[in-house]
TrEMBL record:
Annotated organism of origin: Chinchilla lanigera (Long-tailed chinchilla)
Stretch forming the signal peptide: 1-25
BP-aspect Gene Ontology terms: cell adhesion; nervous system development
Occurrences of domain EGF-like (ranges): 548-585, 958-996
Gene3D superfamilies reported for this sequence: 2.60.120.1000, 2.60.120.200, Galactose-binding domain-like (2.60.120.260), Laminin (2.10.25.10)
Protein name: Contactin associated protein family member 4
Length: 1322
């Protein structure tokens, strides 16, 4: 219902927008009339003219009068051509030509506009392009559509560049139409109050449109309030618009909570700005100029309880005013409409519904100040000092985003180096250099680089100086030095190059920003005279215009990045966002556990970002790295929950909230190969379905918000459970166990695995209202396996083959990532074209990957060079990104290459062709090889699906082990899968996804592990185990042994390997703690002994041992630092290897005394990663994958050798206990065979009766205890939710015990009946 209501409201808002755009404009849509051709000569003016025949009046398009166009006296960037349209017009397009019959033309220009011929504003394209491309010759016409259009009276064309073979020459035309304008002027003390009829207004709807031009940075534009605190307020504050709509509040919030939505910036620039507010219920559209925000208001109701009046320009009703101070608006309002009512027209007609306070006029006053723009760090303005030499007095206002820059310099008399006034880290800093003394500094203000206007006043007379910043005075009196006298010239914003030597040197650079209201010696400087060249001089200035712009509006920092700016660019702070890059576009996290796994990561908690650079943020989950990677996502309902006393009119609803949003979960599920979630549902006289009418009594809800009535393990068929599919329900009349309505506990438990329905978000239970009726449930975490998009790939077999996809839209930010492998020398991976824009990624050469692009600033390309060839048939990863600030490319782990975007250049990437993958539209330079996991702005393309229907391209790609095989460690072998690979650890002493998890065991006293290679020599040829290579027919001339150990006991036997020919190898720790390796490869000789006695090896530390024998040469390495090579004299081969023993030896024959002694003591401590060639005895004992010839005696438990030997290592790891399983389990005979006489029968009968009575008594006691326990836990259920599972398990155990004992009793009774039916008893 909510979604339907929302859709209706959105449609109404859309219709309102369309209707009110017509009212706001007040014009016909046919707005392309030529506006210049019919103007009189007096409407044209210019900065200068080359001659009377080159005057501005000859600048009409396609006209040949005079010299065929306008040309200034000199060609420089301070020239301009101006047009007066007579009144404000709406201007939709402009065209330009060069001078007729000449080589004079303008190749680029600025377009400026004004309503008064003063305070000009530059027109911008794409929010950052200020210049227009002009003409390359005299006759061609260049046309530009202006979006948005300009509403102005005056236009000014300012040439930036012109023909190098000629001079500046222009002819122009502009197109548009008349513009309807009704204006009122408010002086900051006046306001309007509009009172209306309550029948004329809907309580849930408001539409307000207006334009405003502000003379001050603060003021209320409109306010409407009600008796209960509801209100709507639009306020200009520090040049930004703040809209607050408050509903359902008892009273207005305090001042610091007024901000509900902020839009716009620098709106106090004394230019017109448009506002549109549309409210329908809780939905609000807020538009300022070209920027729009949509949001929902806070509060309980859809309507606002407001009085039937609204104020404009201030708050007109003091009795109903807010409790916090708000200043009135100072400026002009134009075309003010409130719900279709023309407010200004009512004022003109003196309608009694309008109450005016203060002075209100119907013409807009024009600004009196002339602003300056310092365009670069080389800009400066030089002005002479006026009259009075005995004092210094300078004041001005400035605004900037830069933290540093020179504001003012003057070479004062008697002051060496003069006076420097500058910005440093947003603070004002005044430097004086008295002769013979250290420079003195005065610091004032702070945060002056916030883009707001700030007032500066500097006054000095003799030895007194004061510096005032925004009315805050900083004085220095008296000065330690000579008296201050005014200098000859003041330099604002910078100094001419090669002037004053080092006196005007400022390490902070020149000033970039705006200045106005410059006053010297209390006389206001006429800056128009400066522009005309009659006063002072300047460089790189724009006079009568403040060109500051807010580069953080809109905010191009993505994913919550914090935007800051300077005069020429913006910066994004990506700290704590989870993203990186110039605009915080790229995620620093992988998109799945599968991706983490193939970076070599082991199980643990990880942040994943399922859509990469898309809008969804990262979230934390657990990755369980097995042969495939499992993502485990938890929720708040992981405990057993018991439910009672519900019925259809009073249902129970359990809500599950996950550690990720539903959008994040959906993205994760969509990427996964398989997802599942276990739903354990227990019931006792609680049904899932009403069998009488077939209605569901319990159900669950998934992410699609649809009701599901199938249960764990079943396919998505309504009212089905696993037992119904398998045909093993406790009552075959039903499809679920719970529907049997038994009075004892049963369950319908299993895994839900239909991805489109996962995860479970709610469970509803309605049938626990009957006596003794109850249900319990437990929902497991969401488990998702693999990443089908990570392995999605295609093989390109011919250069002419390619895949095509819809146009890629990455106008402001675009990233492309993929894997490739090839043996080809070159080829295009990807290409997408526009009219002039394009992107292309290609293998330029065997060692070069290149990213080429053009967004309208000309083609660029950046390349990554590799010291090795990319055409090595290995997987390589490519990632490119282009945003407003830069373009970059990175391949594998090579250093990325970056191309900085040109300042104020084109930023929109505009493509319109199909996206070609693996080739180009021309079918040339196609790619040969494999491309995998292709993603554009976080969206994966399904290469395999498209490849199935494309000739020359095959879905999938084999050969992953060539790139990922190095992840398999410790002897693990990489094996290919259809999608990916896995590590085969069967020949390794390690386990885990990469064979990197060592198997360790704690050996108790007297314990051992014996691995038998063959039972005896005669059976060796039939052996099929791993020991087959050791059978008696072979001569074992080499072996590799590795192990790690930790112990404090001596003597100890670490390892003993024997043969059927009394040959052996023993590794022992002798009584003195030395490590000894004893080889006896000839039964008739004494063993060779390799002794390491440099320290005691029974020191409780972990030691690593490696033994490598090649015939008679043995190399021993200890702790990867000590190595010794020994030549054996006893022989070179083992014959018929019998067994390998770890720990205590059970047979001591034919060994030397030291080995026998160590074997008798065995080993107490920790052994780890034991391997003899490809045999791993600990792994065979503790992690058997198949039956193995291994015997475990005594206490051997899996434990980490990181813990000191002898401690409770079993508490740190999962424990496996092993014992000697020799002997029979039960040697007793059946009871019927034990009866030999009548007395035996009678005795047996008595025993049976007594046993039955004891069983019944025990059961009764147990039931009583369980009832008491149940009641106690039921009472505490709300206090301790975790006890529900314990109680339920206890009841289930009790129920099972009762059932088991009942079965035993029935068995005994049945046995007695069978036994005592002998006729001899009667």
């Amino acid at each position: 219902m909510r979604s339907i209501t929302g859709a209706v409201l959105n449609m109404l808002l859309l219709l309102s927008t369309q209707n009110w755009s017509k009212v706001e404009a007040g014009n016909s849509y046919d707005c392309d009339d030529p506006l210049v051709s019919a103007l009189p000569q007096a409407s044209f003016s210019s900065s200068s003219e080359l001659s009377s025949s080159h005057g501005p009046g000859f600048a009409r398009l396609n006209r040949r009068e005079g010299a065929g166009g306008w040309s200034p006296l000199v060609s420089n960037k301070y020239q301009w051509l101006q047009i007066d349209l007579g009144e404000r017009k709406e201007i939709n397009s402009v065209t330009t030509q060069g001078g007729y019959g000449s080589s004079s033309s303008v190749t680029s220009y600025l377009l400026m506009f004004s309503n008064s011929g003063r305070n000009w504003k530059q027109y911008r394209q794409e929010d950052s392009i200020w210049g227009f491309a002009g003409n390359a010759n005299a006759d061609s016409v260049v046309y530009y559509r202006l979006q948005p259009s300009i509403k102005a009276r005056f236009l000014r064309f300012t040439p930036l560049e012109w023909s190098p073979k000629g001079r500046i020459g222009m002819r122009i035309e502009v197109f548009g139409c008349a513009y309807r304008s009704e204006v009122i002027d408010l002086d900051g003390k006046s306001s309007l109050l509009y009172r209306f009829d309550e029948q004329s207004l809907s309580p849930i709807k408001d539409i307000i449109s207006l334009k405003f031009k502000a003379m001050q940075s603060d003021g209320v534009l409109l306010h409407r309030a009600g008796p209960s605190g509801d209100h709507i307020t639009l306020e200009l504050k520090r040049g930004k618009l703040f809209l607050l709509i408050n509903s359902g509040a008892a009273k207005l919030p305090s001042t610091h909570t007024l901000v509900n939505l902020t839009l716009g910036s620098l709106l106090d620039d004394q230019h017109w700005h448009s506002v549109l507010i549309q409210r329908l219920g809780k939905q609000v559209n807020f538009t300022v100029d070209e920027h729009r925000r949509r949001f929902h208001t806070q509060g309980e109701f859809n309507y606002l309880d407001l009085d039937y009046e609204i104020s404009f320009g201030g708050i007109s009703a003091p009795s109903k005013s807010v409790s916090f101070p708000l200043s009135n608006f100072h400026g002009c309002l134009e075309n003010l409409y409130y719900n279709g009512v023309d407010i200004i027209d009512l004022i003109k007609k003196q309608n009694p519904q309008i109450i005016m306070t203060g002075n209100v006029s119907f013409s807009c006053s024009q600004p009196q100040s002339v602003p300056l723009t310092f365009l670069s760090s080389r800009s400066y303005l030089a002005l002479p000092a006026f009259s009075r030499d005995d004092e210094l007095s300078v004041s001005f206002q400035f605004r900037t985003w830069n933290k540093a820059g020179l504001l003012l310099f003057s070479e004062l008399r008697l002051i060496s180096g003069g006076l420097l006034l500058s910005l440093s880290d947003g603070k004002l800093k005044l430097n004086l250099h008295p002769p013979g003394k250290l420079p003195s500094d005065i610091t004032a203000g702070g945060g002056l680089n916030d883009g707001q206007w700030h007032s500066i006043s500097l006054y000095a007379k003799r030895n007194h100086l004061s510096l005032t910043v925004d009315s805050h005075v900083t004085s220095a009196s008296p000065l330690l030095g000579p008296e201050i006298y005014s200098g000859g010239t003041y330099y604002f914003g910078g100094c001419p190059e090669k002037s004053f030597a080092s006196k005007c040197q400022n390490s902070l650079g020149g000033f970039q920003g705006c200045m106005r209201l410059i006053s010297i010696s209390n006389e206001v400087v006429d800056l128009i005279s400066v522009q005309q060249g009659s006063l002072g001089n300047f460089s790189d200035l724009q006079i009568d215009s403040c060109g500051i712009s807010d580069r953080c509006l809109p905010n191009y920092c993505e994913h919550g990045g914090e935007c800051s700016q300077s005069w020429s660019t913006f910066h994004c702070n990506c700290t704590n966002t989870g993203y990186t890059g110039a605009t915080c576009h790229s995620s620093i996290y992988e998109q799945s556990c599968e991706a983490y796994k193939h970076r070599g990561n082991t199980s643990g908690f990880y942040y994943i970002d399922s859509d990469g650079s898309g809008p969804l943020g990262p979230f934390l989950l657990y990755c369980n790295m097995t042969e495939t990677a499992w993502a485990i996502i938890q929720h708040n309902g992981s405990d057993f929950t018991r439910v009672r006393r519900t019925h259809p009119d009073h249902p129970y609803a359990g809500i599950f909230e996950y550690t990720a949003s539903m959008e994040q979960l959906q993205a994760t599920i969509n990427r996964a190969e398989h997802c599942e979630q276990e739903l354990a549902y227990y019931c006792k006289k609680s049904r899932l379905v009403n069998q009488q009418d077939g209605t569901s009594l319990s159900w669950w809800v998934g992410r699609t918000n649809e009701t599901q009535t199938y249960w764990g393990g079943s396919v998505p068929d309504p009212q089905k459970c696993t037992c119904g599919l398998e045909g093993n329900c406790i009552d075959d009349q039903y499809h679920c166990n719970c529907d049997a309505d038994r009075s004892e506990w049963t369950n319908d438990t299993g895994f839900l695995s239909y991805k489109e329905h996962l995860p479970v978000t709610k469970i509803v239970i309605t049938d626990t209202g009957r006596p003794h009726s109850e249900a319990a449930y437990k929902l497991g975490p969401l488990l998702c396996q693999g990443d089908k998009l990570f392995w999605n790939s295609a093989s390109f077999n011919t250069e002419a083959s390619y895949l095509h996809f819809p146009t890629f839209h990455g106008e402001l930010s675009a990233d492309v990532s993929f894997f490739f492998k090839t043996t080809a020398l070159s080829g295009v991976f990807l290409e997408n074209l526009g009219i002039t824009d394009f992107i292309r990624i290609e293998l330029r050469s065997p060692t070069t990957v290149t990213f080429s692009f053009d967004v309208g600033n000309g083609p660029f390309e950046i390349s990554v060079q590799s010291p090795t060839q990319f055409s090595d048939n290995q997987w390589h990863h490519v990632r490119v990104e282009r945003n407003m600030k830069e373009a970059s490319i990175q391949v594998d782990q090579l250093s990325p290459k970056v191309q900085v975007a040109p300042a104020d250049g084109h930023v929109l990437l505009q493509l319109n062709s199909q996206l070609f993958v693996g080739g180009t539209a021309t079918r040339q330079r196609g790619f040969l090889g494999c491309i995998r996991s292709l993603q554009l702005n976080g969206v994966a393309l399904d290469l395999e699906e498209r490849a199935t229907v494309t000739p020359g391209v095959q879905p999938g790609c084999q050969g992953h082990c060539g790139s990922y095989g190095k992840l398999c460690r410790n002897g693990g072998k990489c094996k290919e899968k259809p999608s990916g690979f896995f590590c085969d650890c069967s020949s390794s002493a390690f386990v885990g996804p990469f064979c990197s998890d060592e198997i360790s065991a704690y050996f108790g006293s007297g314990s051992s592990v014996i691995y038998n290679f063959q039972e005896n020599y005669s059976l060796s040829k039939n052996s099929s185990s791993h020991a087959a290579s050791f059978h008696g027919d072979m001569k074992l001339s080499r072996e590799m042994i590795t192990l790690s150990f930790r112990t404090t006991r001596t003597p100890s036997l670490l390892l003993y390997m024997s043969s059927f020919y009394k040959e052996y190898l023993s590794v022992i720790i002798a009584r003195n703690g030395s490590l000894q390796i004893r080889y006896k490869l000839n039964r008739y000789q004494e063993p060779d002994v390799i002794n390491f006695d440099f320290k005691s090896m029974a020191d409780g530390q972990l030691h690593n041992l490696k033994i490598n024998r090649e015939e008679g040469v043995v190399i021993v390495e200890i702790d990867e630092s000590i190595e010794r090579q020994v030549y054996l004299s006893s022989g070179t081969e083992f014959t018929a290897v019998k067994s390998l023993v770890l720990g205590r030896m059970l047979e001591h024959g034919h060994v030397d005394p030291d080995t026998a002694l160590a074997g008798a003591h065995g080993f107490t401590g920790c052994l780890s990663a034991v391997q003899l060639s490809h045999v791993a005895p600990l792994k065979a004992a503790l992690h058997p994958s198949r039956p193995a010839p291994v015997t475990v005696t005594g206490h051997v438990t899996e434990a980490s050798c990181v813990a000191p030997a002898g401690t409770d290592a079993t508490s740190r790891e999962r424990t496996h206990s092993f014992a000697d399983h020799s002997g029979t389990v039960d040697d007793r005979e059946p009871l019927t065979h034990a009866i030999k006489s009548d007395s035996a029968v009678i005795g047996g009968l008595i025993a049976v009766v007594i046993f039955i009575l004891l069983c019944i008594t025990a059961i009764a006691v147990r039931i009583y205890q369980q009832k008491r326990l149940y009641k106690r836990n039921e009472a505490k259920r709300s206090e301790n939710a975790g006890s529900a599972e314990t109680v339920l398990k206890s009841e289930l155990n009790m129920q099972n015990a009762v059932n088991e004992k009942s079965e035993r009793v029935l068995l005994l009774i049945g046995t007695c009946d069978f036994t005592y039916t002998d006729d001899s008893l009667f």
